Amino acid sequence: EFGITCWSLWRTRNDRVFAGKIITPKTFLHRVRAWLPIVRNALDKDKLIHKPCPPARTEEQISWKPPPPEWVFLNSDGSVLLETGLGAAGGLIRDHSGRYLSACTLNLGACTITQAELRGAVEGLQVAWDRGHCRIRVQLDSQCAVQLIRQTDTEEHHCAAVLARFMELLSRPWEMLVQHVYREGNRCVDFLASRGHVVPFGFHEVVSSDLMLSYWIMYDCQGISEPRLVWNER
C-alpha cells in the first residue's frame, strides 16, 4: 500500500506540474484504492514474490538406450562443414544387446544439414532392408528431420527427393518407428558422420573391426552418460 501511495503522489505531482491537472484529496484516495486490488491480484496471480519461477531447463544425464528384444536400432546423423557447405552422414545398426550389425559413412558433397540428416537415415534403412531386418527403430538427433518425416505436405520442400525415398522405404512390409534422441545419445553416428568428410565421395561400409567405431560402441554399451540441459515442459 505504501508503494502504491508513493507512486500515486508522484503521478499526481507530475500531472499538476506538466499538464496543469489538479485533483482533490478525495479523488486521490479513490485512485489509490482503485489501484490496490489490481496490483495485489497481479502479484498473487504470477506468484512473483511468494513462489519463485522454476528453472526453464534442468540437467539430465543422457546415454544410448538399447532397443527391445526382436528390434534393431538404426542411429543416423548428418554433418555439414560451415566453411565449405559440404555434407556427410553416417548410420549404425545394432541389436538389443548393443552389438554391431552394420554401419556406413557417406560423403555427400554440397547439401544442407537437413538433407544430410535424412540421407543418413535413408541409406541406413536401405542397408537394414538388404540385411533382412524387419523391425527397426530409427533414431535421429535432428528434430527438424523427424518433423519433416511426419509431415504429409513436403512436395515443395528442398528435401522432397530424399523424403520421397524415405517414404518409399517406410511403405515396405516391415515395422518401423522414427524417434528423436539427443545428440548425447547418438555419439556413435556423430563419429561416423564426421568420418564422412575424409572419405571419397559416396557410400562406404564401416566394418566391425574399425577401432574407433568399436570404442564408441563399447562406450554406449557401458551406459556412460553425458549431462545435458533439457527444457522443462510448461
UniProtKB/TrEMBL annotation:
PROSITE patterns named in the record: RNASE_H_1 (PS50879)
Any GO molecular function: nucleic acid binding
Residue span(s) of domain RNase H type-1: 68-198
Organism domain of life: Eukaryota
InterPro entries according to UniProt: RNase_H-like, RNase_H-like_dom_plant, RNaseH-like_sf, RNaseH_domain, RNaseH_sf
This protein's name: RNase H type-1 domain-containing protein
